[in-house]
Amino acid sequence: MADTFEHAPQVWTAARLRSALDGLPDDTPIHVGVADGPGNFEGYEEFVLVSAEPVETEPDEDGGAPTVQFTLFADAKAGVYYLDMD
């Protein structure tokens, strides 16, 4: 049987993000490092922030109302890439 562990990352709030951005010039690009696995940023992939908007989630299993969460969307950095033909 495979070993398991509980992954409980500290999810940032809008206030924490504002605080982290305080004092940065308005034209500072925002990059997003995506973990290679839960909590593993050693081999992270680097993306750029391309959009941010509120997204409505699906209702939970108990039939509770959907919620809206603010979502940051990232894309590959600018460059030349091979087309993925799969």
UniProtKB/TrEMBL annotation:
Domain of life: Bacteria
InterPro entries: DUF6225 (IPR045772)
Protein name as catalogued: DUF6225 family protein
